[in-house]
C-alpha cells in the first residue's frame, strides 16, 4: 500500500477567504486539496468551476488538486480543469456517455484519472478500464452535500475495490469521500482505503493541524 493521503474537501472551507483557508489546511499537514465541482444537474447543488482552481494556483497553492467532477456532461470540463492546474480529475461513470474516451481525455491532458462510484453504483464499471485508471473513488454518501453521515455498506465495497486493485498489480489509489471523521477513519483504512477526503470533519474544527494529526494517529492504529 502507498502512504496514506489526507485530502480536505474545500466544500466546507470558508469561501469568502478560500485562498487563506486552503493555505491554512495545507500548512496544517494536509496532503491534497479535494475540489468538489457540482453543476446543479448531475447533483442538486452548485459549487465552483475552473476559474476557482486557477485562482488557487495563482494564489500559490502547489499541492496536488484533486478535482471531483459531479457534472454532466463531463468531457468539456476536462481540458478546462487541466489548464487551470488540476492534478487528478475524477468523474462519475453515469455522467459520461463514453467512459473510456473520457479517461483517455484526462490522461492526454496530463492529469491522473479516476472513476467515482456512488453508494449504489457497481464496481463493474472498472472491468475494462483498469489499465487507464489512477484513482478509484468510492462515495460513502450520496454526492451533493458535505456533512452527511457515512454509509456503512461502503466498508464492504472498499474491500472489494481493494481486491480489484491488488489483482491489477497497478498502484491505483483507493479514495473514500463522505462522512469520514476521527471515529471511522481507522475502520475505513482497514477496509482498504489509502486516500481520505474529509470536509466538515476538518474545516468545522478550530485547529486543523490537531485534527489532521489526530487522523494520522487513528490511521497508524
Ligand atoms: C460530497 C462531496 C464531498 C463532501 C465531503 O458530494 O463529494 O467531498 O464535501 O464532505 P464531508 O467530509 O463533510 O462528508
Ligand atoms: Zn468530493
Automatic annotation (TrEMBL):
Gene3D superfamilies: Aldolase class I (3.20.20.70). Its cofactor is a divalent metal cation; Mn(2+); Co(2+); Zn(2+). It catalyses: D-ribulose 5-phosphate = D-xylulose 5-phosphate. The active site is at residues 36, 177. Its EC number is 5.1.3.1. It is an enzyme of class 5 (isomerase). Pathway: Carbohydrate degradation. It comes from the Bacteria. GO terms for molecular function: D-ribulose-phosphate 3-epimerase activity. Substrate binds at residues 9, 68, 144-147, 177-179, 199-200. Binds 1 divalent metal cation per subunit. Keywords: Carbohydrate metabolism, Isomerase, Metal-binding. A divalent metal cation binds at residues 34, 36, 68, 177. PANTHER family: RIBULOSE-5-PHOSPHATE-3-EPIMERASE. Catalyzes the reversible epimerization of D-ribulose 5-phosphate to D-xylulose 5-phosphate. Belongs to the ribulose-phosphate 3-epimerase family. This is Ribulose-phosphate 3-epimerase. The gene is rpe.
Amino acid at each position: 500500500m502507498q502512504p496514506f493521503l489526507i485530502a480536505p474537501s474545500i466544500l466546507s472551507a470558508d469561501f469568502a477567504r478560500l485562498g487563506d483557508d486552503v493555505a491554512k489546511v495545507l500548512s496544517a499537514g494536509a496532503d491534497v486539496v479535494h475540489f468538489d465541482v457540482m453543476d446543479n444537474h448531475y447533483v442538486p447543488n452548485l459549487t465552483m468551476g475552473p476559474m476557482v482552481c486557477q485562482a488557487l494556483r495563482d494564489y500559490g497553492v502547489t499541492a496536488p488538486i484533486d478535482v471531483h467532477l459531479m457534472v454532466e456532461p463531463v468531457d468539456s470540463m476536462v481540458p478546462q480543469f487541466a489548464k487551470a492546474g488540476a492534478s487528478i480529475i475524477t468523474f462519475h461513470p453515469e455522467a459520461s456517455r463514453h467512459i473510456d474516451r473520457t479517461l483517455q481525455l484526462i490522461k492526454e491532458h496530463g492529469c491522473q484519472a479516476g472513476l467515482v462510484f456512488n453508494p449504489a453504483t457497481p464496481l463493474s464499471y472498472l472491468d475494462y478500464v483498469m489499465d487507464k485508471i489512477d484513482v478509484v473513488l468510492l462515495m460513502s454518501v450520496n454526492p451533493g452535500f458535505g456533512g452527511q453521515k457515512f454509509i456503512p455498506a461502503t466498508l464492504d465495497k472498499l474491500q472489494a475495490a481493494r481486491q480489484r486493485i491488488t489483482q491489477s498489480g497497478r498502484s491505483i489509489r483507493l479514495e473514500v469521500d463522505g462522512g469520514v471523521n476521527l471515529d471511522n477513519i481507522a475502520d475505513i483504512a482497514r477496509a482498504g482505503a489509502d486516500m481520505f477526503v474529509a470536509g466538515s470533519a476538518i474545516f468545522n474544527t478550530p485547529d486543523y493541524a490537531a485534527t489532521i494529526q489526530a487522523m494520522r494517529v487513528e490511521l497508524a492504529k
